[in-house]
Amino acid sequence: MRTLACAVALLAVAACARPLPREELVDLTHPFDASTIYWPTEESFVLEGAPGGVTEGGYYYEAHRFRAAEHGGTHLDAPIHLHAGGEHVDEIPLEHLVAPGVVIDVQAACFDDRDHEIGVADLQAWEKQNGEIPRGGIVLFYTGTSRYWPDREAYLGTTARGQEAVSSLHFPGLGADAARWLIAERGVVAVGIDTASIDRGPSRRFETHQTLFAANVPAFENVAALELLPPRGFRIAALPMKIGGGSGAPLRIVAFVPRSSP
After folding, report:
1. Domains (ranges, CATH) in the chain?
2. What whole-number distance in Å separates Cα of residue 194 and Cα of residue 60?
3. Which position has the higher pLDDT, 260 or 35?
4. 36-86 per-position pLDDT tens digit
5. Do 226 and 142 contact (CB within 8 A), yes or no?
6. For residue 260, what pLDDT is reported?
């Protein structure tokens, strides 16, 4: 029975990940290259290898190597990142990565306050206009910060590197109280944001990370192109590199958006 249940669950996930005839795919991922933004304490993305060319056998061949931290660019934070005993990247259920999505637009508040902390009031205001956040869904926050990518100073608030630069970070994020509300009242399975961290830049204890990860709710960071999505009515597939024992991983995240009727 367990095997049959697992098979049914996998078929359901596969069906959700397959675009329907009247769906459009929207890529929500920043490219990984030399300009990719990483946390100030991490090195940049590096792609190594010579350009491709024709071999002695007469066929074209190209292959490279890359070096990168787990946490940088569009990526997933696994619960183990800030919660002992939390799930590693390879342990996160697919149902937490492929699910109905909503986008909560808080860019007006973030324009007024670069360090805006998204609160329960922001969530309730969105629901008043758009309806209740679906249980088992993925909530994405559009702060407008993604418009600055890949300008490090505009995006992070500083161009400095190293541990001392962390105190100079300025960008919006989700408050811990709002994270608790999303878990307890709406049963979300994942959250994402178009900034470098689900906690706002000035955070020092990363309480939102801790709150989410204690409930095994993963976070997607540096998400792109959220301005292209409607508030609700679409599906998300957020599939990270399956790093065994990883605390995070590069992420390819896409939205399945219903096409408008002709």
Report:
1. 2-258 (3.50.30.50)
2. 38
3. 35
4. 999 999 999 999 999 999 999 999 999 999 999 999 999 999 999 999 999
5. yes
6. 78
DSSP run (H or E) holding 191? strand 190-193
Q: Phi/psi at 111 (nearest 5 deg)?
A: -65, -40
β-strand partners of 221: 75
pTM for the structure as a whole = 0.91
Tokens of 23: 């769906």
- Preceding omega of 51 cis (within 30 degrees of 0): no
Instruction: Name all contacts of 82-86 with Cβ < 8 Å and 24+ positions apart.
Output: 82/206, 82/209, 82/210, 82/213, 83/209, 83/210, 83/213, 83/214, 86/213, 86/214, 86/216
Task: Evaluate whether 10 touches 139 at the Cβ level (below 8 Å).
Answer: no
Predicted confidence (pLDDT) per residue in 96-141, tens digit: 999 999 999 999 999 999 999 999 999 999 999 999 999 999 999 9
The arithmetic mean of pLDDT across residues 176-203, rounded, is: 98
**Token match 């990984």: residue?**
32
**How far is residue 148's CA from residue 133's CA, in Å, rounded to a whole number?**
28
What sign has the CA pseudo-torsion 144, 73, 19, 99? negative
Please name which of 41, 100, 106 lies closest in space to residue 72, comparing C-alpha atoms.
41
Q: Token pair 């399956």 is at which residue?
A: 242
Looking at every residue in the chain, the average pLDDT score rounds to 94
Q: Enter the tokens of residue 137.
A: 């869904």
Residue 70: phi and psi, rounded to 5, are -65, -40
